[in-house]
Amino acid sequence: MSSYDVIVIGSGPGGYVCAIRCAQLGLKTACVEGRETLGGTCLNVGCIPSKALLHASHQLHEAEHNFAKMGLKGKTPSVDWKQMLAYKQETIDTNTKGIEFLFKKNKVDWIKGWASIPGAGKVQVGDEVHEAKHIVIASGSQVSTIPGVTVDEKTVVTSTGALELPKVPKTMAVIGAGVIGLELGSVYARLGAEVTVLEYLDGITPGMDLELARAFQKTLTKQGLKFVLGAAVQKVAPGKSNATVTWRAKGSDKDETLKTDVVLVATGRKPFTDGLGLEALGVEMTERGQIRTGAEWQTNVKGIHAIGDAIEGPMLAHKAEDEGMAVAEVLAGKHGHVNYGVIPAVVYTHPELSSVGETEEQLKAAGRDYKVGKFSFMGNGRAKANFAGDGFVKILADKESDRILGAHIIGPMAGDLIHEICVAMEFGASAQDLAMTCHAHPTYSEAVREAALACGDGAIHA
Ligand code: FAD
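A: This is the predicted complex of the input protein with flavin-adenine dinucleotide.
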């Protein structure tokens, strides 16, 4: 039996970041992980592998559509799927090994196996019981499916199966037009699959600023994805070499069917807390199965904190990381803080989408007086040179004070561009503050400045 100041359960972006920061702050720390490798969902079957496939398939798209325009002639590359999967795996491996290295460097003990909490201050892994002054649960999330759907990870797959299909399917149905479904759907569309997205709601990417979501749907449609909105999926049945989706248009009593090589079920994720023994401990949960936390991510059981996908809030790696760092600060007797009003969200398709703060719909619903500054990438020299003129930057600012309330971007490098607005928002900046900041030319960032200018006297290149 070993004794620690902190034992973190789970080594995803919440858990590993928390463990490293705890150790850096002088706490004796261990991190328990049930998987073979560190890094959680994010590094093993989430953010990192999906971005590797998005990157590779985007390169193919560039070669097919834009190389010749720039005078780059020659045979368009063909897809060696096995090699693409090997590249994806290598990307995973270098990242998970990187966490292993950081654990060693920071003297975090990696306890291998599945943990349970037999009592406050105790963590059991296999036959061993370890003691800890503080326990941080960072057990993450798992795929959540809908009734009537049988997943076999062959013809009916979750995102995990979709990251390692044996071959590129000719046809694919994606159930759910959220971020994960659309990112993976666009990977396979670029690789040549005919992709149909079935979504119960009347629009895609629910919760996103509506103007952005509509522009996104148009762009994806242009790229060849088909959308069936208002489709209530009744059943998905796996077959030997294909699968059948039965769905019904909202308000109709007639079943429709779609036979397809692969069905990707991307209907969301739910917290994963199985096997931890939380019920016996009396840890309070929300109605949605999340661990309920109060101030400083403390559960109702003294000495047990929880962070990341296992608790409330957006299921995002960087939200989990921020909570991990903040809890570590708290456990070290310092002050930990996460500003939930400034957590960016990104969709890594091409073009990318990003968003932070309030949407226009939220501001309207709150009856807030606001102004909109918008700028199209068509007016940005760099974007035009790079065939990336599709899209816009939209900044929402308070009508009176000019304080930035939110920003929504669809266009090149949107996932990176959003951060200057995040920093501005953290400092309580006005749109004018952004507009008065010199931006290098020619950069995509100039479009952000122009949108800020458009909140005031007007953009220059519009
Ligand atoms: P996780 O990463 O889920 O890690 C939890 C870990 O805890 C797991 O490794 C699990 O094995 C371990 N564990 C659980 N219970 C125990 C136990 N009892 N004992 C020992 N170990 C245990 N987010 C983004 O921000 N950007 C993206 O681009 C993005 N892309 C995604 C793409 C896909 C396909 C998916 C599925 C998700 C994506 N996400 C993305 C979401 C992101 O992966 C999660 O928000 C993030 O991983 C949550 O981190 P976490 O630390 O809370 O949990």
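The longest strand covers residues 128-137. The pocket of flavin-adenine dinucleotide is lined by residues 9-15, 32-35, 40-42, 46-47, 50, 114-115, 138-141, 159, 180, 272, 275-276, 308-310, 315-318, 320, 348 (CB under 6 Å).
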